[in-house]
Amino acid sequence: MSQDGAPASARVAAELRRRITAGELAPGARVPSTRAIVQRYGVAMATATKVLTTLQHEGLIRTVPGVGSVVAGAPVERPARRRSSSPEGALGVAAIVAAGTVVADAEGLAALSMRRVAAELDAAPMSLYRHVRDKDELLLQMMDAAISEVALPEPPADWREGLEIAARALWTGFRRHPWLPAALSLTRPQLLPGALEYSEWVLGVLTRAGWDPLTTFTTHLTVFTFVRGLAMNLELESEAEAASGLTDDEWMSGQEQALAALVADGRHPNFTHVLSGMDFDMDLDALFEFGLQRLLAGIAATG
Fold first, then answer.
1. How far apart are CA 195 and CA 145, in angstroms?
2. 282-301 as b/e: b if 16+ CB within 10 A
3. Where in the chain do CATH 1.10.10.60 domains reside?
4. pLDDT tens, position by position, 258-296
5. Start and end of every HTH tetR-type domain (predicted)?
6. What DSSP letter does each residue of 208-238 carry, written as one string?
7. pTM of the model
8. Least confident interval from 140-154, 191-205, 229-243
9. CA-CA distances (angstroms) from residue 185 to 132, 140, 162, 180?
10. In this structure, are residues 185 and 230 in contact, taking their beta carbons and an 8 Å threshold?
11. Strand 68-71 relative to strand 61-64: parallel, antiparallel, unpaired?
């Protein structure tokens, strides 16, 4: 929440609205992308998406495929479509997967569709089906590409150091692609080469520690589940922020009076005592660090 009490999305939208109405951003000029807004104003991707959606609904900006968001009012010359001499053409599988990932990263899996990806690529929706069978196959390809980005170094000799490296790398990957944790299944795992490489690395670290196969595999799944479970909140928070225009801190601040009224009857003394005795910040990164260290300590104590 800014000093004037306005949500971050409203504050940034007001700044861009002022620049448009003042003529600083002329008709046809490109408006900062969601990523540019994130970097410049220090807000979440969901907040940046909310800003552009608000301005679009107000008729101040419009989206031009292949260009991005521009100030409404003047035609924009679209760049020529790039053609490739390769058999895949400009709409190869890699390009489609990359476009789908951009959509999911910015807007969540709910926004992913073949038509939406086609618009991102400035292509006819049916042209995508020559390269990707359907949305389900596209999602699998996106998942594999995303999990393959998880970078792991040469395995260390110490199993605890290895598990910590793997957990941090996975958390970083989930932070980069908030839709990925919900897409991955633990009980019915998708056959993804990238996920297999990750598991191979972790299992190698634990096997070299001399653990039996059952303990090795169960430990791997336990750490993976911890990271994935906490990361499930990343997309949920992004969706909530986009819908409300409020960050989690701003939302919590708005609930203080309601929470005080809820516990005023004195029936929850432990809850009241704990919350009144600390200044708690719902920081998922801090919660990840806290949980990871205690999980590893527990594994070490029983291993």
1. 10
2. eeeeeebeeebeebbeebee
3. 89-148
4. 877 888 888 888 878 777 776 666 688 889 999 999 999
5. 90-150
6. HTT--HHHHHHHHHHHHHHHHHHHHHHHHHH
7. 0.68
8. 229-243
9. 22, 12, 23, 10
10. no
11. antiparallel
For 117, 132, 239, the CA distances from 125, given in Å and listed in that order, are: 8, 11, 26
pLDDT, residue 185, reads: 92
pLDDT digits (tens, 9 = 90+) for 114-159: 999 998 888 888 999 999 999 999 999 999 999 999 989 999 999 9
CATH number for the domain running over 8-71: 1.10.10.10
Indicate the CATH number for domain 89-148. 1.10.10.60
Is the pLDDT confidence value at 11 over 80? yes
CATH number for domain 159-302, candidates 1.10.10.10, 3.20.20.70, 3.40.50.300, 1.10.357.10: 1.10.357.10
What's the chain's average pLDDT? 83
Within 13 Å, how many C-alpha atoms sit on residue 33's CB side?
9
The H-assigned helical ranges of the chain are 8-21, 34-41, 45-57, 93-107, 114-121, 135-148, 159-176, 180-183, 193-208, 213-244, 248-254, 256-262, 269-276, 284-302
For residue 88, pLDDT beyond 70: no
d(CA 71, CA 22): 12
CA distance 301 to 303: 6
